[in-house]
Design a protein that fits this description.
By secondary structure, the protein is of the alpha+beta class. The protein has a single domain (6-193), classed as Jelly Rolls, CATH 2.60.120. The protein is built from 5 helices and 8 strands. Strands 1-2-3-8-4-6 form a 6-stranded antiparallel beta sheet. Helix 1 (6-21) packs antiparallel against helix 4. The longest helix has 16 residues, at 6-21.
């Protein structure tokens, strides 16, 4: 049986605690329940190689904002972050800002290519430098965001909205969505429940 590193378990426990406090609807609650039910059984550590990108220069500022009301989660992520592989989104559609390439970074914590490699539950983070617009995109797994910074989001036919620090929202499968930062970096955690997850 695989044994999960305590540094990862601390982060997942803090994340679950924060999501329990978030004001979310029944679909989001079911998605989160599926993700964390799958995560009860650890998977082997992934073979990811820790790496940072230029946008990570804004991580300290983003975490300072997150610590304002979410100290345990921010601290557990900061402890875990040196183990993560930050990557760029490989696909764009022209809706992104001109500074997108070096202005964003994503890291898979648990999931394909993550610190814990698995297919049945994905948890990761996105970081945007100030004044960056992420491209429109979609994916088949449903998704719940926990936002730990200022920033705005859009999904489906909605206008842009601001969840606020500690805000959370749900994306149905295959819905087009995007995010954008303002004067400060945007930092958000996402949980995806692929079809067939527990």
């Amino acid at each position: 049986m695989a044994e999960r590193p305590q540094i990862l378990q601390n982060f997942l426990d803090s994340l679950q605690d924060e999501l329990k406090k978030a004001k979310i609807g029944p679909e989001a609650k079911k998605c989160i329940a599926r993700v964390f039910e799958a995560l009860r059984q650890p998977s082997p550590s992934g073979r990811n190689q820790p790496a940072r990108l230029p946008a990570c220069a804004h991580l300290a500022d983003a975490l300072a904002t997150a610590r304002g009301g979410h100290e345990a989660l921010a601290a557990s992520f900061a402890a875990l972050e040196p183990k993560l592989t930050w990557t760029r989104r490989p696909k764009t559609d022209g809706s992104e800002s001109a500074n997108f390439t070096d202005g964003h970074a994503n890291a898979m914590i648990v999931g394909p290519g993550g610190f814990e490699a698995r297919d049945d539950a994905w948890v990761g983070v996105s970081l945007l430098a100030p004044h960056v617009r992420y491209p429109d995109h979609d994916h088949s797994p449903e998704e719940v965001y926990l936002v730990l910074s200022e920033g705005k989001f859009q999904h489906g036919d909605s206008g842009w909205f601001e969840p606020g620090i500690g805000g959370s929202f749900y994306n149905t499968p295959n819905i087009k969505h995007a995010m954008a930062s303002g004067e400060k970096p945007l930092f958000a955690i996402w949980c995806l429940a692929p079809a067939g997850a527990a």
